[in-house]
Prior knowledge:
Blueprint lengths: L6 E7 L8 E6 L2 E7 L2 E2 L9 E2 L4 H5 L4 E6 L4 H4 L2 H8 L3 E3 L1 H13 L7 E3 L5 E4 L2 E7 L8 E7 L2 E5 L17 H10 L3 E3 L14 H33 L2
Parallel strand pairs: 3-6, 6-7, 7-8, 12-13
Antiparallel strand pairs: 1-2, 2-3, 4-5, 9-10, 10-11, 11-12
Helix pairs in contact: 3-4
Amino acid sequence: MLKDKGFYFVPLGGSEQFGVNLNVYGCDGDLLAVDCGIGFADERFPGIDLLLPDPAHLEEARDRLAGMIITHAHEDHVGAVAHLWDRLECPLYATPFTAEILRLKLNEQGYKHVKVHEIMPGQAIDIGPFHVNFLAVAHSIPDAVALHIETPYGGIVHSGDWNLDPAPVAGPRTEAETFKEVGKKGVIAYIGDSTNADRPGRSGSESSVAKGLASVMKSKKRQGGYHHLFLQYRADCQHR
Length: 240
């Protein structure tokens, strides 16, 4: 249990691994969760398909959990919420696209009337003692955001998943000026996604992928329709 005074960052999942993201910030006894995603099991877990983060710490302190923010709608950030909902039941916050995906997942698990607060990129709200700014970033899915979390102890940047795509397909670019302005306010910690950060060079733009997919789909439609494309894709997978 965290002390009643002070500021803490507690990664309950996702750090030094891919998926099962569940991050917790504590400020003078109040808690804010960021993301709650699934992971995909590998050969280390025979007979298991999905991995979930362990919410025991949050469950024990549920009366102190001011809310949970979902930064974007990829499974490794949103996929575990519905599976763990009966153990958390806290206010939920997300941008519109992410909120709609979250509602669908909750409905599939039988939670049909859970309120999800929609927050627009660029908007700032107070969640308990946390003043949270939702910062638009580029990613391969709409409405992805980073978070600038302001507390009496200082400001934190929580990046979520993001990239520096110069021509994103699913939203605005990640603007350096946005983060420069945040930096002027003072940042005591940066909690950042680092997938592939150790690889040299730059990633390609999502727009180039879109052009390639459009070209393939057009050519396959002429050769026999999308069913033919699916059969070829399945055959390719079987021979890998």
